[in-house]
Recover the amino acids of this structure.
């Protein structure tokens, strides 16, 4: 009887503990590593859709990525710039605005964002910029796979 | 008792299986390269070194900053957090990452942003404290490339 009670208690604990185990996966080489990066020091035109990750792995069916984007005006002008990330998630193709309409009025104008999203297996992840007016920009992007 | 031992072993193996199923990337980045953990802050912090010197190469480096600031004892004042770094193109830059925050009980703000940094340069943070109140501050810096 005592053994049954202990077993029942352990089964209950296992059910409660399982989600915590699923979260505590950090440490050592594994997911979370930077798998792609972009370092552009001088751009003065829109960048069309450009590959960041040519193809995500074939499995699992759905994956999670974190993209860290920095866009900085290095030579002031009259224009503005923004960045987008293209990916495919559960509902299809997405074009996410990650940094919006940053003016290039002075060389202290910079913006950054950290953006996470789900991406389907065997799909491309791309970035682009939409440049308007004049000015020169620096652009940094990294992509990390989270699971 | 044997049944109990077997169940405990099974639980242990299941736990590890969750932890092992993460191997993919061998990238050394991101890596936390500096952190600050401040409690009981009741004054401005001036140019506190976060990273004394970035590596001498490559000529352009990329870091991610995570900042957190919480009022732990309410007061009449405010606090804000800035970071100073040397941009690889623009030179020295100071930017605010937590704007002025009132010190009402447990009021907090956080931010995650990225920065480009020149080699062999320092990264420091400061707070601008006004009036009364006590603050906790946490800062981590990860290198992304």
């Amino acid at each position: 009887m005592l053994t049954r009670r202990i077993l029942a208690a352990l089964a209950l604990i296992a059910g409660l503990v399982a989600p915590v185990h699923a979260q505590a996966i950090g440490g050592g080489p594994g997911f979370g590593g930077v798998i792609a990066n972009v370092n552009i020091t001088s751009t003065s035109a829109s960048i069309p859709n450009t590959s960041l990750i040519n193809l995500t792995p074939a499995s699992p069916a759905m994956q999670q990525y974190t993209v860290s984007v920095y866009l900085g005006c290095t030579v002031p002008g009259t224009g503005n710039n923004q960045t987008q990330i293209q990916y495919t998630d559960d509902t299809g193709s997405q074009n996410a605005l990650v940094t919006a309409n940053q003016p290039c009025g002075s060389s202290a104008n910079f913006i950054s964002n950290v953006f996470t999203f789900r991406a389907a297996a065997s799909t491309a992840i791309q970035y682009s910029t939409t440049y308007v007016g004049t000015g020169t920009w620096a652009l940094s992007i990294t992509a990390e796979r989270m699971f | 008792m044997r049944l109990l031992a077997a169940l405990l072993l099974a639980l242990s193996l299941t736990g590890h299986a969750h932890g092992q199923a993460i191997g993919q990337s061998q990238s050394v980045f991101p890596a936390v390269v500096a952190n600050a953990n401040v409690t009981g802050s009741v004054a401005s912090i001036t140019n506190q070194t976060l990273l004394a010197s970035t590596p001498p190469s490559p000529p352009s480096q990329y870091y991610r900053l995570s900042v957190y600031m919480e009022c732990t004892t309410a007061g009449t004042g405010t606090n804000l957090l800035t970071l100073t770094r040397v941009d690889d193109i623009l030179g020295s830059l100071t930017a605010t990452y937590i704007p002025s925050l009132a010190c009402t009980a447990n009021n907090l703000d956080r931010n995650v942003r990225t920065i480009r940094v020149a080699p062999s340069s320092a990264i420091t943070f400061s707070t601008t404290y006004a009036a009364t109140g006590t603050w906790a501050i946490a800062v981590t810096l990860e290198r992304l490339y």
